[in-house]
Amino acid sequence: MDPIEKLQRCLEMSGLKEETCQGYTYKINIFLRTINKETNEITLDDILEYLRHLRYVKEYCIGTVNSYRNAIKYFYEVVLEKQWINKKIPHLKGYNPLPSVLSKEEVIEFIELMPKEIYKVMLYTMYSSGLRAFLLLFMLC
To answer: How far apart are CA 80 and CA 90, in angstroms?
Structure first.
């Protein structure tokens, strides 16, 4: 059976979200095309080199490289049924996405810049009601 077909069959039964399954399939397709080896010949060293290539040659962010690592780990363990060694291919450290949160003073400053009073009332209502996501969207427009 084709390794991608086997991956998809395993993912169907995994309980992972559909977006995760699609992402894993996409990433594994790219990985297999890039390393250009038979699946039974893939080693942890190949995977390490591929992830290093993503990080330092293609300059992918830490979070993206870790997502490729997760997909490849799943493929390696579940589909290829090989033993994964976390110490050999650890998660990259240092990925701490900052939340999109403004300070209270920044929000008030932004609202006060609105040209019409109705906008100010709407934004103060959104902010005080806890609708910060909508407020952020409004600010980006």
So the answer is: 19
- Give the Cα separation of 75 and 84 in Å (integer): 10
Global pTM reads: 0.67
**CA nearest 136: which of 120, 123, 118?**
123
- Torsion sign over Cα 104, 109, 112, 118: negative
**pLDDT per residue over 73-129, tens digit each?**
999 999 999 999 999 998 888 766 656 667 788 878 888 888 899 888 888 887 777
- In terms of domains, do 21 and 65 share one? yes
- List the domain range (segments joined by +) for residue 120: 104-140
Determine the longest span between alpha carbons in the chain, in angstroms: 67
Same domain, 16 and 65: yes
Q: Is the dihedral of CA 59, 61, 62, 67 positive or negative?
A: negative
Q: How far apart are CA 42 and CA 51, in angstroms?
A: 13
Segments of 8-130 assigned E as strands:
none
Rounded (5°) CA angle 33-39-42: 90
